[in-house]
Amino acid sequence: MDQQLSITESGWVFGPAVKGIRMDSRLVQPGDVFIAVSGSLLDGHEFIQQAIDKGAVAIVGEKPMGRLPVPYIQVQSSREAAADIATSFYKHPSKDLVTVAVTGTNGKTSVVYWLSAILNAANIKTGLVSSVVNDIVCRKQPASLTTPESPDLQAYLDQIRNCGGKAAVVEVSSHGIVQQRVRGTIFQLAILTNITREHLDFHGTMERYVDAKATLFRMLPSNSLGAVLNADDQHFETVAKASRAPVTSYGIKAGDIRGQVLQETAWSTDIRVSGLNLDFITRINHPGRYNVYNVLAVTAAAIRLGVTQEILQREIPNLPSVPGRMQITGGQRGPMAVVDYAHTPDGLYQSLLTVRKFTEGKVWLIFGARGGRDRGKRPEMGRIAAQYADYVIVTADSPNFEDPQKIADALIEGIRQVDDTKLKLVELNRALAIHYAVRHAEKNDVILITGRGPETIQHFGNEDVRLVDAEVVEEALQERWRQEGSHVPGIS
Ligand SMILES: CC(=O)N[C@H]1[C@@H](OP(=O)(O)OP(=O)(O)OC[C@H]2O[C@@H](n3ccc(=O)[nH]c3=O)[C@H](O)[C@@H]2O)O[C@H](CO)[C@@H](O)[C@@H]1O[C@H](C)C(=O)N[C@@H](C)C(=O)N[C@H](CCC(=O)O)C(=O)O
Ligand SMILES: Nc1ncnc2c1ncn2[C@@H]1O[C@H](COP(=O)(O)OP(=O)(O)OP(=O)(O)O)[C@@H](O)[C@H]1O
């Protein structure tokens, strides 16, 4: 049996037959090393035979195994080993790139998109790894997790390097940090957007959630470009203390880099940016105060990466839309519909507040909550809905293996605590819920549909149903306009 994988004092050594690293047996191809993980739902060790049948040349796991037809290496932690093996196999791609991590409860994808746009505009070829898409400079691939498992992350970074990329901006979730998906990645800069309630099903307490985020900053080398932190966030001090690297802070109320809001309209905000030798006025063509914070995070990071004030001032007004974030339909004729990915209490609050600002009529909210995720946030989101929307329609998000009615009940409980009369309808069929709102809204009302953004599949147990909020609302609007006797193109 050829030894295709071994561990020596100086690290992992690979034989010539090794072609890739996989943690999912279903994806194994001939020549791959398969790493078996004992997960929360399944045990990867049970898929070792499948991996071998598919051509795995070596197996790594954390349990003793009987005799196998390929070499088996037992380790303490499969996830840690996976990260070490992957960084070694792909020859530490993060060291050859300026690799930037973006973490936080909300705003990660927006910051990843916008920082990479600014860096590309500054002629620094930049790839990105995000929950929406992975852009490896020479092509784009759809994403599944926010932060890929370590072998996939290292493979993406390797591809970015091979495609001539000089920098990579990586969205780092708290799951990703705890599950060692970013172990071994050398970040030059790490950005924190904010920390509010989320994922307590996974972390248990807020302290542990904050600590998971802080771990990313503990990982920053002391000689790196540093940490970029939101000075207005309640957990700023905790995370700043965790960072071994220099801290650059940003904010509206405090921070090394300060944003002063000069003028706000429905769609844009004019800001003056000052501090750290910066002083310029620019326009953010995206709605909401939260996007001022996202842009300030991008600005602080870009400055640390050597981008000039002139480039920032010129490019901030051109920052691209992020799919499924404040995506507007039907504005010309009304009612207007907004699809937004808000799925945390703070995200929902920010989203409703933003929509409220540009609504002359009533605000309709259509929302549900994801099954199998933080249950405690549901009544809180119900309370926020009843407080800031005029009409609330409770529907299904992606229930996964939970009963959609029970999820709805938890949201309704919160709504009832604030104002029973706000609850307009409970309709678990999301398409019907959207059609109902479009049929009943007045022309100057706004219908906000939250929770799923650009997602295409709703999971009901083992059944997958295709549903894209933006497509359904567009179809409903067209139907309404047809009945009103005039057809107007939907996307405005
Ligand atoms: C809670 C969590 O993070 N779970 C992730 C984790 O699951 P797990 O460790 O429990 O794994 P498991 O499903 O029990 O399976 C055990 C092992 O068997 C392997 N397996 C499984 C089946 C098979 O046929 N063959 C096989 O080899 C799996 O690849 C895995 O390595 O590892 C799996 C393999 O990579 C992920 O698919 C799974 O993500 C689930 C689907 C998920 O939804 N994760 C979300 C919560 C998540 O991680 N989200 C964060 C961000 C959230 C945010 O930003 O809001 C993210 O970073 O994406
Ligand atoms: N800085 C922010 N503060 C609070 N809410 C925000 C912020 N930025 C965005 N949001 C809200 O959160 C939603 C998701 O934004 P975004 O995708 O950028 O965040 P995210 O952290 O990447 O989320 P995920 O990792 O779950 O994709 C937006 O649609 C908006 O409603």
What's the SSE blueprint?
Blueprint: E1 5-8, E2 11-14, E3 20-22, E4 32-35, H1 48-53, E5 58-61, E6 72-74, H2 78-89, E7 98-103, H3 108-121, E8 126-129, E9 133-135, E10 140-142, H4 150-162, E11 167-171, H5 174-178, E12 189-192, H6 200-203, H7 206-218, E13 226-230, H8 236-242, E14 247-251, E15 257-264, E16 269-275, E17 278-284, H9 289-304, H10 309-315, E18 327-329, E19 336-340, H11 345-357, E20 363-367, H12 377-388, E21 391-394, H13 404-418, E22 423-426, H14 430-440, E23 446-450, E24 457-460, E25 463-466, H15 469-484
Parallel strand pairs: 3-4, 4-5, 5-6, 7-11, 7-12, 8-11, 12-13, 13-14, 14-15, 19-23, 20-21, 20-23, 21-22
Antiparallel strand pairs: 1-2, 8-9, 9-10, 15-16, 16-17, 18-19, 24-25
Helix pairs in contact: 2-4, 3-9, 7-8, 11-12, 12-13, 14-15
The structure holds ligand UAG and adenosine-5'-triphosphate.
Adenosine-5'-triphosphate binds at residues 104, 106-110, 131, 146, 193-194, 290, 293-294, 325, 340-342, 346-347, 350-351.
